[in-house]
């Protein structure tokens, strides 16, 4: 009872990070169904690199040009610009027959990664704290980051609710959609744009490793457990939120690394889904 009392007494410390982690898990779990079924699981890595490049550019501007961009919301805004812009290019230019989506993702990841290394090498005054500036810390999340994340999640939810039929059709039956006059490239670009919005804000809250995991593992578990697409979206959203919540609370109580604990819980959920499917079949 004393342990629970101590835990609850610290709720002002863990409340905001827990809320942000749950929102991130749910948002990425939902978008992960598209990522897994379209077989572009490394898109999260590429867009994370692009958002990181945006922050590096902001920090270099501050250090070399004397432009004031120290406020985290400005840094995040530039990261969103790089990530969402790159996502639009990947979703539109990379969707043709001559350039598969995988090629665009791979080139974006490699080039952005190289530029991040070069840019980080030139930074001086924030080099010691660069990792936390880029990826944040799931243990201590500022309340403004929670509101930004919630706003992005709401925007993504509205977009996918209003245009669900078009995005799903263009994503999973592209040839038929184009034959019926649907602009598949437009809807693919919109999908990638929403992913590009979600990744920087989620990475700032929970880190790069959980972002990659939440874009793949909950969706994979949901697709194993469900035979239909619509239930898979709901289940992936719930599993992402559950893995984030349980992982965060477990890391808090057991004094474990937060991101790794979240990923481990997500992996356990996937193993459970595989076991349930094997028993059911």
Word description of this protein:
With 281 residues, the chain is mainly alpha-helical. The protein has one domain (2-280): ABC transporter involved in vitamin B12 uptake, BtuC (Orthogonal Bundle), CATH 1.10.3470.10. The protein is built from 14 helices and no strands. It has helices spanning 2-9, 11-37, 43-65, 72-92, 101-122, 130-135, 143-162, 164-172, 174-179, 184-206, 208-214, 217-225, 229-254, 258-280. α2 packs antiparallel against α10 (184-206), α2 (11-37) packs across α12 (217-225) and α12 packs across α13. The longest helix is centred in the first third of the chain and has 27 residues, at 11-37. The mean pLDDT is 82.
Briefly say what this structure is.
The protein is mainly α. Helices cover 82% and strands 0% of the residues. The protein is globular, with a radius of gyration of 19 Å.
- The number of domains is 1
Which strand-content bin applies to the residues? under 5%
Helix content: over 70%
> CATH H level: which superfamily?
ABC transporter involved in vitamin B12 uptake, BtuC
Total count of helical runs of at least 4 residues: 14
The counted number of beta strands is 0
CATH architecture: Orthogonal Bundle
By CATH, the topology is: ABC transporter involved in vitamin B12 uptake, BtuC
CATH class: Mainly Alpha
* Low-pLDDT runs: none
Order of helices and strands: HHHHHHHHHHHHHH
Using only C-alpha atoms, the radius of gyration works out to 19 Å
Q: Note the main sheet.
A: none
Q: How far apart are the first and last residues' alpha carbons, in Å?
A: 43 Å
Average pLDDT taken over every residue: 82
Shape: globular
Overall structural class, as computed from helix and strand content, comes to mainly alpha
């Amino acid at each position: 009872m004393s342990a629970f009392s101590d835990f609850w007494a610290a709720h002002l410390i863990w409340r905001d990070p827990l809320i942000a982690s749950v929102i991130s898990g749910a948002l990425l779990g939902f978008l992960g169904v598209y990522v897994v079924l379209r077989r572009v699981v490394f898109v999260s890595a590429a867009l994370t690199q692009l958002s990181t490049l945006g922050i590096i550019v902001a920090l270099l501007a501050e250090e070399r040009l004397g432009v004031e961009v120290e406020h985290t919301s400005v840094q995040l805004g530039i990261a969103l610009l790089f990530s969402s812009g790159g996502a639009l290019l990947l979703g539109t230019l990379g969707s043709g027959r001559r350039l598969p989506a995988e090629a665009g993702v791979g080139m974006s990841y490699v080039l952005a990664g190289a530029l991040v290394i070069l840019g980080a090498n030139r930074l001086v005054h924030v080099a010691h704290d660069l990792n936390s500036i880029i990826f944040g810390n799931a243990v201590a999340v500022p309340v403004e980051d929670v509101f930004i994340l919630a706003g992005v999640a709401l925007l993504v939810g509205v977009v996918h609710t209003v245009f669900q039929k078009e995005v799903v059709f263009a994503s999973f039956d592209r040839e038929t959609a184009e034959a019926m006059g649907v602009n598949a490239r437009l809807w693919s670009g919109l999908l990638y744009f929403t992913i590009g919005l979600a990744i920087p804000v989620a990475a700032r809250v929970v880190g790069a490793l959980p972002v990659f995991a939440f874009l793949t593992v909950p969706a994979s578990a949901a697709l194993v457990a469900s035979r239909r697409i619509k239930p898979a979206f709901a289940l992936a959203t719930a599993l992402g939120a559950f893995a984030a919540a349980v992982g965060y609370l477990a890391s808090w109580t057991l004094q474990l690394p937060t991101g790794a604990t979240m990923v481990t819980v997500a992996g356990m959920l996937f193993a459970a889904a595989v076991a349930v499917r094997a028993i059911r079949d």
